[in-house]
Amino acid sequence: MSNERLSQEEINALLNDEPVEITPMERDALGEIGNIAFGSGATALSLLLNKKVKLTTPTVTITTMRQLIREHPTPCVAAEVGYIKGLYGTNLLVLEIADAAVIADLMQGGDGSNPKMELEEMEISAIGEAMNQMIGKAATSMSSLFNIRVEIAPPKTQIIELIDAGQIDEALADDKKVAKISFRLEIEKLLDSSLMLVIPLDLGRKMAESLIKNSEEEKPASVVPPGPDDGAEEEALQPLTKTVKIEEEEAVIQPVRFAPVSSGETSQEKSNLNLLLDVPLQISVELGSTRMKIKEILDLGMGSIVELDRLAGEPVDVLVNGKVFARGEVVVIDENFGIKITDIVSPVARINNLQ
Question: Nearest CA to 104 among 37, 48, 188?
Fold first, then answer.
């Protein structure tokens, strides 16, 4: 008989007939996915609402839709998210009606202090756009986490009773096991509530396994074991051989540029390079662009919307002296906009941009 004791969480699960079909590592992986992916989603929501938005570290619970319905009997606003590439399945992003009303009011230009509690088509459309931006940003982050391209269909936002979730997708029927990822959602003294992501357990485990597998595959690439001490020349060549192998397997990794082994760089060349280090350059960020006819431009007025050639959640271009140098994500730092660099343009592409 094993001497291992059950944790209090496992005891509670057995007493409540809660399904325990996920390992601690998979549970932690789901929490990490929620933390990183919807942390990016919170940034997108902050930009939309022009308010500070904070999502706390999520908690992961394995339950059934039947139990979830008992815990949340009131109507709520839910966005049905369908993964169509990289991952396949459906999950729900769920907000309470009162919380959705505050976000919808902010989206429509209000201050959120006196929201309209009876959500109509206009309010549902506004909250749908907000959730669309959050989920789109989260999908982009998942692509980086899993090292695969993750695409979603446009989310469908509606007011539902959780008891009807099975009508959205059979994977969310009342007897199905699900992973509930809960966040504490805070919006600048206007909102302090919860946001809930409901994922069918099978899909949740696939997401967790993808993250774990990707993390394990990256470990050998980041640590190069020392080779046998067969002489200075072999020792110098070993890291170079390993780097070439990584470039063949991981096309997204930029080639490493080593300094010459011999003293080929003279002090005069270093001095010439130092002359350029304090040259100022103009850095700008391009969200997107479009082409319009003169008539269309003349028709623009206050409140007009110009559609850009970039999807929600896509990286923005970082330009140096008008040439694309990198791509990144928009972030908010102490109420100021900033850019988090996610990709550097390759040297070859940079040269082509200069031509």
Answer: 48
Tell me if the domain spanning 281-300+310-355 has CATH number 2.30.330.10: yes
What are the C-alpha distances in Å from 221 to residues 150, 214, 229, 288?
23, 11, 21, 35
Domain ranges of the chain: 8-215, 281-300+310-355
| Tens-place pLDDT, residues 135-171 | 888 888 888 888 888 888 888 888 877 655 545 555 5
Is the separation of the CB atoms in 193 and 76 below 8 Å? no
Question: Could you report how far apart the first and last alpha carbons of the chain are, in Å?
Answer: 73
Residue 286 predicted with pLDDT over 50:
yes
Q: How far is it, in rounded angstroms, from Cα 128 to Cα 100? A: 9
| Single-letter amino acid code for the residue at 37 | A
Could you tell me the pTM of the whole model?
0.54
The 10s digit of each residue's pLDDT in 293-339 is 888 888 888 888 888 888 877 888 888 877 888 888 888 887 788 88
Please count the other Cβ atoms lying within 10 Å of the Cβ belonging to residue 143.
18
The CA distance from 79 to 153, in Å, is: 11
Confidence of residue 269 (pLDDT cuts 50, 70, 90): low
Can you tell me which residue has the tokens 């690439």? Answer: 221
Q: What is the largest CA-CA distance in the chain?
A: 82
- Record the tokens describing residue 326, joined without a space: 């990198």
**75: which 2 tokens?**
């109507």
The rounded distance, in Å, linking the Cα atoms of 69 and 103 is 24
Chain centroid offset of residue 198 CA: 17
Model confidence at 200: pLDDT above 50: yes
Domain 8-215: give its CATH superfamily.
Answer: CheC-like (3.40.1550.10)
* Contact by Cβ (8 Å): 316, 327: yes
